[in-house]
Amino acid sequence: MDVNVIDDFLPQKDFEEVRDLMVFNDTFPWFFQKEVNSMGTNCDKDFWNWYGTHTFYVNDFPESKNYPILYNKFIPYFKEMNIYHTLVRIKGNFYPHTETLKEHAPHIDYEYSHVGALYSLNTCDGFTKLYDGTKIDSVANRILIFDASTLHNSTTTTTSAGRFNINFNFL
Length: 171
Prior knowledge:
Layout lengths: L3 E3 L5 H11 L8 E3 L17 E8 L2 E2 L4 H14 L6 E10 L18 E6 L6 E4 L4 E3 L5 E5 L4 E2 L8 E9 L1
Antiparallel strand pairs: 1-9, 2-3, 3-4, 3-5, 5-11, 6-9, 6-11, 7-8, 7-10
């Protein structure tokens, strides 16, 4: 599968609605995870190696009252691009600010071949590194579409209070 990066993915109004829901909303529920993935250390050893998550959809079931907002904003575009077949998961990620940029351990989302779409909610110095070393910068309203069964990793940020994105997985 080819790697595809699309800037200005959503219309500005839709982008702002999703961003405001997840980034600028004091009551949006982020859930603490003591490790970013099972391939690295956790925050007991490396204090920076944690993140917040919010699962919108997984295992054929909506997990969040906000699921319809994301579904209605994104899925029509995924269908147009012919990457939407079976939805596996929608998960929000919040990576904390650190004094120096930290890379998390490489991981795969699922062991079977599938499409990943990683949507950035803010611009910062964080990035996603793909298996071949390519770095995709976190730019607000940018989406990265790739084979998420290949190794990739995330980072923290030094230029923002946090790095915020949404991870979609499709069969």
